[in-house]
Specification:
By secondary structure, the protein is α+β, with helices and mostly antiparallel strands. Strands 1-2-4-3 form a 4-stranded antiparallel sheet, with helices on one face. Strand 1 and strand 2 form a beta hairpin. Helix 3 packs antiparallel against helix 4. The longest helix is centred in the N-terminal third of the chain and has 60 residues. The chain starts with a helix and ends with a strand.
Length: 163
């Protein structure tokens, strides 16, 4: 079957309509056509355009964070290699400087367990950053609980770089 077989009866029916009815059929067809073009072409594009600013801000923040991490990684790579003894010395110094009497630590091979008592979250964050940069120590385990005073108690296990 050809397309003409389907359209011929419709064309004949259209020609038999009064001029006013023809105008209404053409207007209705145009309205349906415009609606289809809107739903298929314009609405999805406008939806993407509306969300683009928020997505752009999110991506900018991610890019900034990645740039910061990249700079930290380059800074760490540029530092001379240090042995486990030097890393341990720097970690002990960071514990004394940042945590003072609110932390006790024990050493088991390349792992250092640090027990914290009443330490503010900002202090923990700053100390972990210093331990990572200075001693190349990486957190392996964390068991922390917030106490009623709003500070933290618990244990952190850090892994020192291999010898």
């Amino acid at each position: 079957m050809k397309i003409a077989d389907f359209t011929a009866p419709l064309a004949a029916r259209f020609e038999s309509l009064a001029p006013r009815e023809k105008l209404m059929v053409v207007a209705a067809s145009a309205l349906v056509g415009v609606a289809l073009v809107w739903w298929i072409a314009f609405a999805p594009a406008l939806r993407v355009l509306r969300g683009a600013e928020a997505q752009h801000r999110t991506l900018d923040a991610q890019e900034q964070r990645m740039s910061t991490l990249q700079a930290q990684a380059r800074a760490m790579q540029s530092q001379p290699r240090q042995g486990q003894e030097e890393a341990l010395r720097r970690l002990e110094l960071a514990i004394r400087q940042q945590l003072a009497t609110s932390a006790r630590y024990s050493i088991q091979g390349d792992r250092v367990s640090v027990t914290l008592t009443n330490v503010a979250s900002e202090t923990i964050s700053q100390w972990l950053a210093q331990a990572r940069v200075d001693a190349h120590a990486l957190p392996a385990e964390a068991k922390l609980q917030r106490n009623p005073a709003g500070t933290w108690d618990g244990t952190l296990v850090l892994v020192l770089p291999p010898q």
